[in-house]
Specification:
The chain has 3 helices and 12 strands; from the N terminus they run H-H-H-E-E-E-E-E-E-E-E-E-E-E-E. By secondary structure, it is α+β, with helices and mostly antiparallel strands. The strands form 2 sheets. It has a 6-stranded antiparallel beta barrel. The chain has a 6-stranded antiparallel β-barrel with strand order 6-7-8-11-10-9. Strand 10 and strand 11 form a beta hairpin. The protein is elongated, with a radius of gyration of 38 Å.
Length: 271
């Protein structure tokens, strides 16, 4: 009996481990690993819950929250732009205050050519009305319906605007270039102009009032023939227009016969 007890003390642990292994193997065979898998899942479930992503309900709530934040940010941006525009409009005399309108249509294929406004003849807008934004001249109303207006932008390749250099009164024709810049063709071969000079509509313009800001000289080519040309950085945010102001067309435009004769015959078509 003493010998058996001593043997058990020495070999009992090993026997117990062997029995555990054999019983585990038998259980795995009988359950085809289901019990072990269940035990594994029970042990690891808390860790999986910590590592797992949000539930579908949580993702839906997050998506709704992001949508609301996006809408709030957009409304705040639009409100700020509208306040800036209204402040700009209020500087005008009451008798000549413009019609405030929002851009509601713009084609990707004609991004630099035209825009559609949410006001038309019912609001008093007519063809030939002047469109401006904070920064200066935007374009000309080309056609109207009772509730919309289509505007030809000054960045359109067909657009031509008679302009002048504020510092020296040098004059020329501004042509659209389908970008945030435009090409200025001078009447003179060697005009008195330099990079950084400000450009505005001239008194010779037949469709736009004089003195409306347009842009700034970005680069010059005084060797261009038959007349010098310049690249003009446009002031109005043509790339991202939202709100604009629409003004009546000039009442007494200067007759075409009073336009100066440019070196290049084409500028006679200036607007």
């Amino acid at each position: 009996m003493v010998i058996l007890r001593r043997w058990w003390e020495r070999k009992g642990l090993q026997v117990g481990l062997i029995a555990l292994v054999l019983s585990s193997a038998w259980i795995l065979r009988q359950t085809q690993g289901a019990l072990l898998l269940e035990m594994y899942q029970t042990i690891t479930r808390p860790l999986q819950m910590l590592q797992a992503g949000p539930t579908p309900e949580e993702r839906l709530k997050d998506a709704r929250a992001l949508e609301l934040r996006s809408r709030i940010a957009d409304l705040e941006s639009q409100n700020k732009k509208l306040q800036n525009l209204l402040g700009y409009v209020e500087k005008e005399p009451i008798t000549s205050r413009p019609i405030t309108s929002r851009v509601v249509g713009r084609s990707a294929d004609h991004w630099w050519q035209q825009i559609t406004l949410d006001r038309g003849s019912n609001s008093g807008i007519q063809e030939g009305y002047i469109v401006r934004a904070e920064g200066g001249l935007v374009g000309l109303v080309e056609s109207v319906t009772p509730n919309t207006s289509r505007v030809l932008l000054i960045s359109d390749l067909k657009s031509q605007v008679g302009v002048t250099i504020g510092r020296t009164s040098a004059k020329g024709v501004l042509r659209g270039d389908s970008s945030a810049e435009a090409v200025l063709e001078f009447y003179e071969k060697v005009p008195n102009v330099k990079v950084g000079d400000y450009v505005s509509t001239s008194t010779y313009s037949q469709k736009f009032p004089a003195g409306v800001a347009v842009g700034r000289i970005k680069s010059l080519d005084l060797k261009k023939l038959p007349a010098s040309v310049a690249k003009v950085e446009l002031f109005p945010p043509i790339r991202s227009l939202d709100w604009v102001s629409v003004y009546p067309k000039p009442e007494n435009p200067i007759p075409a016969t009073e336009n100066p004769q440019p070196t290049n015959p084409e500028p006679q078509k200036s607007n």
